[in-house]
Write a structure and sequence with these properties.
By secondary structure, the protein is an alpha/beta fold. The protein contains 14 helices and 17 strands. A hairpin with a 2-residue loop joins strand 1 and strand 2. The longest helix is centred in the first third of the chain and has 17 residues. It is globular.
Length: 451
């Protein structure tokens, strides 16, 4: 039996640009056909503005429950490292049920913001004693269940984490829930593949956590296990750069490019503190840079040199990382606004054209490749689409790329109307169909954890 849906958009952004009067035929959740200059027919569901769903290439879903709880300054300078200590205390109480409830809220909010696939950089593997669960992917399975109930497509990135600092420093006690050996990691990957079997369009990758958390030998062995995306945190903080220099004589990205076969499968998450030479190396490798402007601002990490990166041809995607705020348009807006603040000029990105279009196209293409996802809105690919409310005041009278400029810089996530994932409408009127149940379970979970 074939399930068929037809959507009609007055204007839809396709891979080769805006197209008018577009009919999208969806069969069994996949794009069966796309016809432009096609009049609306009876049975078509009509919308005005349509976009491909956006990939969110970097998330730690459980951190959604920390949002707003670390905004009090203690003695001395606050920093990422102070925030990390708070996060370590929080993970002590998390169990699989809590992981599922928190992740479901995060994924629901992602979908309401226009994200349709998440790259889950998942490192909370062990039980509170630091022992592997009977099923090594117990916590990963909870994430997969959250993705299933929200409709979110997932690229699961199980993390390899073995040491606490450069030079093979042993892990700290508070890191015991993250740590695994190489044999255990291979078992974890196998179990993670199994927990994704029932999740449509799921992908799996590998994720050496960071250069401070793996040795060179372990990095090579983890990468050898990959048959898809490879993600790693790198050069996020200035202290990481100085520690890497002291230990290896090279900067983190410099060292990585010299010691690993970085290629198109890699995503270098953050890469905040990089030189022009490192940017040239990233561009030459074909790797994607995973940028998370909201989290990078929240943690005080610094600003990625996006203008210089664009000039070198570096490709990028966006992620919500700590999920302190989940907003696809704000990630794009902050990416541009950070450059404006540093350079004290406007429209820094976009090569003389539409800034909103440059940001959206870049994040869509980079995120798709980084997560090993099918090309957006291609025949045979999952039907992942977003409609934008044309009657939003900021969208009134807009045409062409001005629609993206107005969405990113004026309307924001309030203009996201409907979201389809694999042809099913999960969001309508900006509200996820399972919002009430997911929010209620999240609330009871957070209250339980606080006791």
């Amino acid at each position: 039996m074939h399930e068929e849906t037809r959507l009609h958009f007055e204007r839809l952004l396709l891979c080769d640009g805006w197209s008018s009067n577009v009919r999208v035929t969806i069969r069994n959740g996949l794009v069966a056909a796309i016809h432009s200059d096609a009049p609306r027919e009876p049975g078509d569901e009509a919308h005005v503005i349509g976009l491909p769903g956006m990939p969110n290439l970097h998330s730690h879903a459980f951190q959604r429950a920390l949002a707003g709880l670390t905004e009090r300054r203690g003695e001395g300078e606050d920093s990422f490292w102070i925030w990390r200590a708070e996060m370590y205390r929080f993970v002590e109480v998390l169990d699989p049920d809590a992981m599922r409830a928190i992740a479901a809220l995060a994924y629901m909010e992602m979908m309401e913001a226009g994200f349709t696939r998440v790259g889950e950089f998942h490192y909370l593997h062990n039980d509170p004693r630091g022992q592997a669960y009977a099923d090594p992917a117990e916590m990963g399975a909870a994430l997969a269940q959250a993705a299933e109930e929200t409709g979110m497509a997932m690229t699961l990135l199980p993390v390899f984490y073995a040491q606490s600092g450069f030079g093979g420093q042993p892990p700290a006690p508070e890191q015991r829930r993250f740590v695994t050996g190489l044999d255990g990691y291979a078992l974890l990957l196998d179990a993670s593949r199994k927990c994704l079997e029932a999740l449509p369009d799921a992908r799996i990758g590998v994720a050496p956590h960071s250069l401070r958390a793996v040795t060179l030998q372990a990095l090579a062995e983890v990468v050898h296990l990959a048959d898809g995306p490879i993600h790693i945190h790198v050069a996020e903080q200035e202290r990481e750069v100085s520690d890497c220099l002291a230990s290896t004589g090279a900067r983190p990205v410099e060292w990585l490019l010299a010691n690993a076969k970085v290629d198109r499968n890699w995503c270098l998450v953050h890469a905040t503190h990089v030189t022009d030479a490192e940017l040239a190396g990233i561009a030459g490798s074909g790797a994607i840079v995973g940028l998370c402007p909201i989290t990078e601002a929240n943690l005080g990490d610094g600003l990625f040199p996006a203008v210089e990166a664009a000039e070198q041809g570096v490709r990028f995607g966006i992620g919500s990382d700590s999920n302190v705020r989940i907003d696809m348009t704000e990630e794009l807006r902050l990416l541009e606004y950070g450059q404006r603040l540093v350079r004290r000029r406007r429209n820094c990105l976009g090569s003389g054209g539409s800034t909103g279009r440059f940001l959206f196209d870049g994040a869509l293409g980079g995120g798709t490749r980084a997560l090993g996802a099918p090309p957006p809105l291609a025949p045979g690919a999952p039907a992942d689409l977003v409609s934008i409310a044309a009657d939003h005041p900021a969208m009134t009278g807009r045409t062409g790329d001005a629609m993206l400029d107005s969405l990113v810089f004026a309307a924001g996530r309030d203009a996201v109307d409907c979201v389809w994932r694999r042809g099913r409408k999960w969001v309508e009127g900006g509200r996820h169909r399972e919002r009430d149940a997911i929010a209620a379970r999240y609330a009871s979970t957070v209250k339980r954890l606080a006791r």
